[in-house]
Amino acid sequence: MRWLRLYIIVILITTWTVCCDKEENSSSDILSICQTTEYPNWATSEYVLPYPVGTSFIAVQGNCTKKNDHWHWNSHNVDSPWAFAYDFLMPIGTIVTASRGGEVVWLRENNMDSDNSLGQENAIIIKHEDNTFSAYSHLTHEGVVVELGSEVSQGDTIAISGNSGLSSIAHLHFQISPCLEPETCGSLPVTFKNTIPNPQGLIMGEEYPAMEY
Question: pTM of the full predicted structure?
Answer without folding.
Answer: 0.82
